[in-house]
Amino acid sequence: MTISGETRASQPGPAGVYGTSAVAATATEDLVGLPMPQRPDTLYDLSRRTRVRRESGPRFPFPIPNGWFVVARADEIEPGRTKSLFYFGKDLVLFRGTDGTPYLFDAYCPHLGANLGVGGKVVDGSLQCPFHGWRFDGASGACVEVPYDDNPYIPKTATARSYPVVERNHMIWAWHHLEGSEPFYEVPEVPEFHDDDWLPIVVKDFEIATCCQEMAENNVDTPHFVYVHGTPAIPEEEFHVYGYFKRTVGMDGNFVREGFGLGLAVLRVKGYTTFVSSTTPIDEENVHVRWIFTSPRALGENAAEDAASSFTAGISQDLPIWENKIFKDPPVLRPSEKAVTEQRRWCQQFYSWPKDDQRRR
């Protein structure tokens, strides 16, 4: 099962869709696989997770990917307020202008390094540093005022790094690119989230000690559904690749997953649920996952919550695998597993490789 750009679950509503074997476990010492037990509590209680890996050194041979990632729920921050965050291996500050427009900066003031999220003041569409009052435009990050200095010249280096931001699907999304390049795809609008025939959204979020690519690889690793999730057979799906976009169709067309890059997907199970997944890199070895669900109102007021609970129970089976494995490069694959090689090749377009990066391939 996976959620990073591509999503899978054990035992969602329609009978026979995924696994038929639900194994319960309540303690770490009870963890026995084939299939792995469902332990939904471990998604939210890190103390209950099974973590035995102790080797040091990087686990993954690639940097944080480029793409659109959720950095906050839209309702987490009000106009005129700031919120300190840590994503992409960086301290960040999210703020809304007084008109409600969201902006995201690297946290540290280019003047003398004060953290703009600790005491910074929103002034219209800009953020004012608490240390010396320098003010930075939200959209560009450029300094637009040094209040104690009569010299009108402000150097271009007096600029806070700003990130492209969009508010969509009840979330605030930021574009991360390691070299600062502009977005090359868009965050899709999901009409079900604004349709009165569909239920209000249900959001599930949790952190996992892994990376976007590892999670996305689960989708093409079809045999694992039998051994981790207890499905009766290896699922058959069609994969279609169009540049940065991947479309997966299964269940005679009733299961459709649209993947955008390595951190964003829209999954639809016909007549059951629609949900968006975002897998935001915290750093190179940890991610913050958010799943945003809705279901047809005709299924009942609890339908979206039930779908969310079913999918998250499934992903709890993946947690002990992801958090204790390493990335094998190259892997030892069977001829029937060529989709893994194809998936890894597709993933390369979402990385920037600095010239001095020894992991560059």
Automatic annotation (TrEMBL):
It catalyses: cholesterol + NADH + O2 + H(+) = 7-dehydrocholesterol + NAD(+) + 2 H2O; cholesterol + NADPH + O2 + H(+) = 7-dehydrocholesterol + NADP(+) + 2 H2O. Its cofactor is Fe cation. Residues 68-174 form the Rieske domain. Keywords: 2Fe-2S, Dioxygenase, Iron, Iron-sulfur, Lipid degradation, Lipid metabolism, Membrane, Metal-binding, Oxidoreductase, Steroid metabolism, Transmembrane, Transmembrane helix. GO terms for biological process: cholesterol metabolic process; lipid catabolic process. Pfam families: KshA_C, Rieske. GO terms for cellular component: cytoplasm; membrane. It is found in: Membrane. It is an enzyme of class 1 (oxidoreductase). Its EC number is 1.14.19.21. The keyword DNA repair does not apply. Its main location: membrane. The keyword Metal-binding applies. It comes from the Bacteria. Pathway: Hormone biosynthesis; Steroid hormone biosynthesis; dafachronic acid biosynthesis. GO terms for molecular function: 2 iron, 2 sulfur cluster binding; cholesterol 7-desaturase [NAD(P)H] activity; dioxygenase activity; metal ion binding; monooxygenase activity. Homotrimer. The two-component system 3-ketosteroid-9-alpha-monooxygenase is composed of an oxygenase component KshA and a reductase component KshB. Belongs to the cholesterol 7-desaturase family. This is cholesterol 7-desaturase. It comes from Frankia nepalensis.
